[in-house]
């Protein structure tokens, strides 16, 4: 659970429903209205039914891309850096609803897109960001190239509950994100998790992009992107280090509410939550 590094600032305006995302109202009308409830009952931590069903047959074979016998790949194409290429193949039962298909959102700072990391293309860039002293202080992933590669591959070669992404603003990679299933993460042991809670980590890459409101603007855009593209998700959560005041401030400016303080391994964190039912008010 690496902490989040984001620039402080404010953001105004709402983010529209995005190309490639299901209409939340249409999905709700199809029998998923329970997913939008926001009652305060604490839920017992358990794996969602689709997660249990996916792994009921045993451990996936790494050599087949993490698929069980009989499963098929769904190839997904996406635009990266102005060229067309095939993204990492994803299984049909995707725990995060195929991030590579979410498309571009119009944020208040320009068109923005999340693109799943490809180690062969993006390792050097992410490694450089991780070794910025201001970033290393909180992410604690500075060091040699192999350390960054191991961190990325642990997610890319895993079961899909966490997806590392580059954030492209106006087509230029300028931030690193991790979108993850908070209800399937060790974080769920430390707060009353609900099914499909989705977590985000953010690292703004360049020092020149920090401290001028980009972080809060993009956090708002990505939180709304998650809610639009994951109809079963009622809350977006984050757990920045309490010492990282600019990050906590950025989440507050992005429409997250401060929910609690958490004692997590290696840090004391602020639990920040953006609720679907409050997104039009905050």
Class per helix and strand makeup: alpha+beta
- Strand coverage percent: 15-25%
Radius of gyration: 18 Å
In helices, the fraction of residues equals: 25-40%
Number of strands: 12
The end-to-end distance, rounded to whole angstroms, is 26 Å
* Main beta-sheet strand count, sense and barrel state: 8 strands, mixed
Q: Which ranges are low-confidence, i.e. pLDDT below 50, for 5 or more consecutive residues?
A: 6-19, 24-45, 54-91
Strand order of the largest sheet: 5-6-7-8-9-10-12-11
Structural overview:
The protein is α+β, with helices and mostly antiparallel strands. The chain contains seven helices and twelve strands. The strands form three sheets. Strands 5-6-7-8-9-10-12-11 form an eight-stranded mixed sheet, with helices on both faces. The protein has a two-stranded antiparallel sheet with strand order 1-4. The chain is globular and about 40 Å long. The chain starts with 23 loop residues before the first helix and ends in a 7-residue tail after the last strand.
């Amino acid at each position: 659970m690496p902490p989040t590094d984001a620039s402080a600032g404010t953001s105004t305006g709402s983010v529209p429903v995005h190309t490639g995302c299901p209409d939340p109202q249409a999905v709700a009308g199809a029998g998923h209205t329970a997913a939008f409830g926001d009652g305060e009952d604490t839920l017992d931590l358990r794996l969602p039914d689709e997660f249990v069903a996916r792994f009921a047959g045993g451990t996936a074979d790494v050599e087949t891309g993490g698929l069980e016998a009989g499963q098929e790949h769904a190839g997904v194409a996406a635009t990266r850096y102005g060229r067309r290429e095939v993204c990492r193949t994803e299984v049909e039962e995707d725990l995060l609803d195929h991030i590579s298909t979410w498309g571009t959102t119009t944020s208040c700072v320009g068109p923005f897109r999340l693109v799943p990391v490809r180690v062969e293309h993006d390792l050097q860039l992410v490694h450089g960001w991780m070794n910025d002293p201001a970033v290393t202080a909180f992410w604690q992933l500075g060091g040699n190239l192999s350390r960054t590669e191991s961190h990325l591959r642990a997610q890319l070669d895993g079961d899909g509950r966490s997806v590392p992404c580059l954030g492209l603003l106006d087509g230029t990679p300028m931030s690193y994100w991790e979108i993850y299933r908070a209800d399937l993460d060790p974080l769920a042991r430390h707060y009353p998790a609900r099914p499909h809670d989705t977590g985000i980590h953010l690292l703004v890459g360049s020092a020149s992009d920090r401290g001028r409101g980009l972080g809060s603007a993009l956090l708002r855009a990505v939180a709304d992107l998650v809610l639009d593209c994951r109809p079963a998700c009622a809350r977006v959560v984050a757990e920045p280090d309490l010492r990282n005041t600019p990050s906590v401030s950025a989440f507050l400016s992005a429409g997250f509410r401060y929910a609690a303080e958490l004692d997590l391994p290696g840090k004391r964190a602020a639990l920040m939550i953006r609720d679907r039912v409050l997104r039009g008010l905050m």
